[in-house]
Amino acid sequence: MRSMKSFFDRDRIIYFLRDADAGERRMLYATADTVRRECVGDGIHLRALLNISNCCDRACLYCGLRAGNKNITRYRLDRKQIVDAAGRAAREGYGTVVMQSGEDPVLTPEFISSIIREIVSRHDMAVTLSLGERPREVLRQWYDDGASRYLLKHETSDLVLYGRLHPGMSFTARMEMLSSLKEIGYQAGSGVMIGLPGQTWESLAGDIMLFRDLDVDMIGCGPYIANPHTPLGGTSKKDGNQVSADEQTVLTVTALNRLVTGDTHIAATTATKTLYSGGGLYRALRSGANVVMPDVTPSPFRDQYLIYPGKEPVDGIAGAAELRAELKKQTGLEIAGGRGDRVRCHS
Ligand code: 5AD
Questions:
Q1: From residue 3, how far is each of 88, 311, 344 by CA, in Å?
Q2: Environment class of residue 319 by beta-carbon count within 10 Å: exposed (0-12), middle (13-18) or buried (19+)?
Q3: Ligand 1: residues within 6 Å at CB?
Q4: Residue 202, CB half-sphere, CA atoms under 13 Å: how many?
Q5: Banded pLDDT at 112 (limits 50, 70, 90)
Q6: Do residues 191 and 214 lie in contact, with contact meaning Cβ atoms separated by under 8 Å?
Q7: What pLDDT band is residue 271 in, cutting at 50, 70 and 90?
Q8: How many whole angstroms from 38 Cα to the centroid of ligand 1?
Q9: What is the pLDDT of residue 235?
Q10: CB within 8 A of 25, min separation 6: which ones?
């Protein structure tokens, strides 16, 4: 495994992303599938995704939740709605609930603390948070309350592109928060979008190497999908250096992420399902991914978490049995039980 990780240096990563032919890519996917089996086993881990608020203070140029977008119905779940939804997810057999939101200051540290405590006292369930950038003391408090994982995508490691897409935000602050999370004891997750306008193959290779260098525990990378209600809209220009958001690129990134990190939990994302109508999700699970995040947000709010148009979330409650059956049938893999923490693999 160690030799595999070092085999994929910067030049080889760029080669597979940009130049490899269909046959070479198929080999790459198959190798990642083998490494996935050796390092994290044959179980697909299901995480119940609970989007608790779509309010956001940030103005990221690509995102439908951005402050200032009037073409979205805003919502914020109350305490009971959150706890009830987590309870439904627990009864449905999920070992993890992911509480996710925009950067919403109305979700105070105390509010989140009390919800974490209630969920972990009632259910044998891991709590993952994805609530944006928060001060270190708050992260420490939530960890002490019982949250054990945190997702904070770095979106792109290209500093110029990061600056252009994230007004008033700092890449360094994000890196610092990822290292704080690990120091506190969280399993930390990151991810990027694939095919952002202005994203180059070199910078995407840098993103993949960064996952390895940061020693993240979880990775979620999905295709960029243009949202007409955002400033970035549909501005993607095609030139040789522009990363495309096609399925082949998403599968290649998934496979490379597996090959350079070994035992991380790698999500087949909702955006991957949306863009490639279901099938892409199954193919990602046989190209290195091992996690699916079905949506357990109650309606009508589920459809209001509109990051990009045409979102097709995987229905995590009404469709749970069908989803499990379909995942098994389409991938030949099992559904994993338990909480699904990261387990270090030493092969
Ligand atoms: N297309 C795909 N993914 C997006 N995200 C935000 N906007 C888009 C988009 N237009 C992802 C980002 C962000 C999360 C809220 O959703 O990775 O972290």
A1: 44, 39, 17
A2: middle
A3: 62-63, 153, 155, 193, 222, 224-225, 227, 271, 307-308
A4: 6
A5: very high
A6: no
A7: confident
A8: 31
A9: 60
A10: 16, 248, 251, 252
Which token pair is 170?
A: 């700092």
Whole-structure pTM value? 0.97
Token pair of 172, please?
């360094």
For the CA of 64, the closest atom of ligand 1 is 7
The count of residues in the chain is 347
- For 220, list phi and psi in degrees, rounded to 5: -135, 110
d(CA 120, ligand 1 centre) in Å: 29
DSSP-derived 3-state class of residue 79: helix
Determine the atom of ligand 1 nearest the C-alpha atom of 193. Answer: 17
- Measure the CA–CA gap between 65 and 331, rounded to whole angstroms: 33
Find where tokens 């939101």 sit: 101
| Ligand 1 atom showing the smallest separation from residue 191 Cα | 17
Give the helix, strand, coil percentages of the chain, each rounded to 5: 45, 15, 40
How do residues 160-197 score in pLDDT, each as one tens digit?
999 999 999 999 999 999 999 999 999 999 999 999 99
